[in-house]
Design a protein that fits this description.
By secondary structure, this protein is α+β, with helices and mostly antiparallel strands. It has helices at 7-72, 78-84, 88-108, 136-149, 186-191, 247-262, 264-297, 312-353, 356-371, 375-393, 402-420, 443-455, 488-495, 507-520, and strands spanning 113-119, 124-127, 159-163, 166-175, 178-185, 202-206, 212-217, 226-232, 239-245, 400-401, 424-430, 438-439, 462-471, 474-481, 525-531, 534-542. It has two domains: 19-262, no CATH class; 354-542, 2-Layer Sandwich (Heat Shock Protein 90), CATH 3.30.565. It is built from 14 helices and 16 strands. Helix 2 (78-84) packs across helix 3 and helix 11 runs parallel beside helix 12. The chain is elongated and about 120 Å long.
Amino acid sequence: MKKGLSIFSKVAFSAWITVIVCVFVVEVFNLLIISRNQKRAEELYERSLKYYCEFWGERMRILNTSMLQLAGRTDSADYITLCESDDQLSVEVSKIQLCRELEQIAVRNDNRIGLFITVPERDCFLSSSQAFSEGGERIRLAIQDTIESEFIQNVGEWRVLWAGDVVYLVQIYHIRSGYIGAIVKGEEVLSELWGGEQVADAVEIRQEDGTVIAYFGKQVAEEGNILTFEQKLNQTNVYLTAVLADSRLYGGSTYMLIMICCVVGLVLLIVSVELIIQNKVVFEPLEKLRQAMERFSGGDMEVRLPAYQGNKQIGHLHRTFNEMTEQITHLKVSIYEKELEKERIKSNYLRVQIQPHFYANILNLIYGMAQIGEYAGIQKLSRATAEYFRYLLGERGTFVLVSEELRGLKSFVEIEKIRYGDRVQIQIEAQKGVESQLILPLLIQTFVENSVKHNVTLDSVLEVLVRIYREDGMLKICVEDNGDGFSPEILKRIQNNENISVNGEHIGITNVQERIRLFYEQEAELKIESCKGRTVVNIYLPEVIQAFVSEEES
């Protein structure tokens, strides 16, 4: 009679079957978890690289705008002077001013990006100091070789520049007879992306043909599989690449399988504990980072990540994300506030232009003159009013020529003389040559109109004197009258640069103050001295001359 299997054998057999099934189930479960986490890690690598490229691309785009504004803005003639002026003193002053502005732009970018201006015809090369402190002569020669050997097209794309064995990204604009540009070291672009070997084996800058031109990290062995995450760097023709061996993402499964086969009893506990720890230390923070990025890209500007101490590299990613969001948010808020301020100034400016009482008074005056047959006066008043309206309602830029402002002012003066006769005497004196200067529109008329409006009812004749002349390198505008002047309270508020407009009163002066502050900043000054019988308004403006003026405007 054949003996059956013993209980021990059955238990051992059942135990082995159970162990094999457990190992198989655990391994399958482990592989599924690892596969999912690998996919999430790859996505996070790709997203991080994408947002990093967008961050640098936005920085380069802002630099492009800053360079174009520096070379072409209408409120500064320094670049034009450097390129075209024959006055050596003016050229030297322009060099100092341009160097200062280049330094300011470089400081705003933490001196990671160098700015330069070169005019080859004049053997002139200006640059921000710190970015050119190391290898400056080599960089300068490389820039000059590029300018001499290539046709510079004013496009927004940065290009690769080799200075010896060091690679840079450079943007050069050809404006007038000079060139203005910015340059950043390739390793500087990679420095924030490189978080150490715990994140990737290497980070690289590659050209479109795959050639590596700059990198951080170590060379990855050719044998075995290599994972490459690549993203084009915005505003350039190069790619940022993160390179790592697949063992960084895929090596855990083999290790877990060996551990499970060797120590069946401990593997379940080890895997469980390890997954819990890794999930808490690595994947949860990365998942929070991914979610925060999605929320931020979706428009939630308030999203921030808490400080993380568990892992240095992930903590660095959290800090980098917070810094990036702060910078982008601050940039958007600054742009929004500046545009809002300009719109408010523009709104007030339009309110100054639209004066229904003034227009109604002119119509009533025409009506009265028609009743008594003053047809010649009506013709004169209509012509002056038409000229005045043409100046007020005509299309213009931010600045107008002094000659245009004076034409509008003379039309206004002619209207006031017709309205008030000999009770108002307005005299205008302009130094020869100031007509080609550029000023903000309605800057002079506002104070002349204020003098007439508040003093025309005086018993004595109102005398207003307008003088425009140069003084100490500044354009000075002086409006003087013999009226009652400003009250001490209003005068004090004007001197403190406070808003003095109440229910539409003095809105013109308030508007002039705000426009001077907005467009001239600290380079202009408004002073008012006032007492009964004498009020003097002095406006000091920097000289701004239009480069090319048509014969008709001249």
